[in-house]
Backbone:
C-alpha cells in the first residue's frame, strides 16, 4: 500500500461523511498532492514541528520541551531511570514476560478506559489522563483522513500498551521515546548526554559501534527497541490476529521512535520496507503530538463510532 494521504483510500474502508461537528484542533492539510509537495508541511529536522493546529494554545516550539517547564523534573527522572536500566538483557527479559499475552483478558475499549488511571510521566506537554489523548488523536486523524477508518482507530489505540503500567511495570519501562539497544546510543535520544552514564551497555565495546549486534540494513523488525508500550501493543495486535493494515502496525510499533522518524538516525539499520513505511509514521506523528490540548473531548459521545471501528479490526475480548 503506497502512501496516498490526499487521494482515495486503497483499502475498502467505509467513507464516513462529515458529521458537522466543530473541530478546534486542526487546520486543513493540502488537498492537492502537488500543493503538498511545495508546502513546508514536512520541513525541518522534526516533521511534526511543521504542523500547528489553528486554535492551539501553544506555539509549535513549546511542544516536546525537554529543557525546562513545570513538569521537567518528573520527565527527566523518568528518562534517567529508563536510560539507566534499559539494557539489551533487560529488553530480552521483557519480551519473554509480555510477548506471550498471557497476563489478562480485556476488550479494546475497556483497555482505553483503563488509561483514565494513567498520567504519562515522560510527557512534558500534558498532565491529564492518557485516555483523553487517545480520543484527541483519533479525532484529529478522522478530520483529515475521513476515508481511512483504520488510521483513525490507530490514533485511538496507539498508547493502549501503557496498560502495563497498571500491571506492575514502572513507567520507565512503559512510556517515553524509544531507541535501539544492542548498538551505539545516538545523540538524538532525549537527554542522551546526561542520563546514560549508569547504563552498563555503554561500557561494552561490542554494543557501542554503529551496528553493534546488527547487520547493515537488517530491517527494524530485527532490531530490539527499548521496551515500552509501542512494541507491547504491536505484539498484542499480532497475537490476537487484528486486521489493522501494515501501515497502521508500523505506526503503533514505532510512533515513539523519535530518533528515527523525526531526526533521521538509525537509517543504516533500515531496509526498503522501513523506508516505505516511514512517511506513514511521520504522518501519524503530527496528530499524536499536536492534538494534545487542555480542551478535552466528549468521550461518551464519541465512543459508539469508535466502538464500531474496534468491532471491525480488533473485536471481542483480547489477550494481553
Residues:
Amino acid at each position: 500500500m503506497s502512501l496516498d494521504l490526499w487521494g482515495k483510500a486503497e483499502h475498502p474502508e467505509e467513507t464516513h461523511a462529515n458529521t458537522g461537528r466543530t473541530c478546534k484542533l486542526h487546520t486543513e492539510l493540502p488537498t492537492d498532492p502537488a500543493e503538498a509537495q511545495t508546502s513546508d508541511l514536512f520541513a525541518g529536522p522534526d516533521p511534526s514541528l511543521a504542523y500547528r493546529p489553528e486554535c492551539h494554545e501553544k506555539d509549535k516550539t513549546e511542544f516536546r520541551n525537554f529543557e525546562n517547564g513545570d513538569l521537567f523534573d518528573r520527565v527527566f527522572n523518568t528518562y534517567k531511570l529508563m536510560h539507566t536500566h534499559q539494557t539489551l538483557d533487560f529488553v530480552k527479559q521483557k519480551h519473554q514476560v509480555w510477548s506471550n499475552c498471557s497476563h489478562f483478558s480485556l476488550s479494546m475499549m475497556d483497555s482505553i478506559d483503563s488509561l483514565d488511571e494513567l498520567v504519562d510521566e515522560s510527557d512534558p506537554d500534558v498532565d491529564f489522563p492518557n485516555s483523553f489523548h487517545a480520543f484527541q488523536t483519533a479525532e484529529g486523524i478522522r478530520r483529515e483522513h475521513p476515508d481511512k477508518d483504520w488510521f483513525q482507530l490507530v490514533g485511538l489505540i496507539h498508547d493502549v500498551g501503557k496498560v502495563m503500567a497498571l500491571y506492575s511495570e514502572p513507567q520507565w519501562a512503559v512510556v517515553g521515546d524509544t531507541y535501539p539497544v544492542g548498538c551505539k546510543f545516538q545523540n538524538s535520544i532525549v537527554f542522551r548526554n546526561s542520563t546514560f552514564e549508569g547504563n552498563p551497555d555503554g561500557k561494552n565495546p561490542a554494543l557501542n559501534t554503529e551496528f553493534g549486534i546488527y547487520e547493515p540494513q537488517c530491517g527494524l523488525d530485527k532490531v530490539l527497541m527499548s521496551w515500552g508500550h509501542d512494541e507491547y501493543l504491536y505484539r498484542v495486535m499480532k497475537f490476537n490476529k487484528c486486521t489493522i493494515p501494515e501501515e497502521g502496525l508500523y505506526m503503533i510499533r514505532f510512533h515513539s521512535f523519535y530518533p528515527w522518524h523525526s531526526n533521521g538516525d538509525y537509517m543504516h539499520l533500515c531496509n526498503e520496507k522501513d523506508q516505505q513505511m516511514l512517511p506513514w509514521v511521520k504522518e501519524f506523528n503530527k496528530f499524536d503530538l499536536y492534538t494534545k490540548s487542555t480542551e478535552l473531548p466528549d468521550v461518551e459521545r464519541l465512543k459508539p463510532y469508535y466502538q464500531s471501528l474496534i468491532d471491525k479490526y480488533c473485536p471481542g475480548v483480547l489477550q494481553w
The CA atoms of residues 52 and 60 lie 6 Å apart. Confidence is low (pLDDT under 50) at residues 4-66.
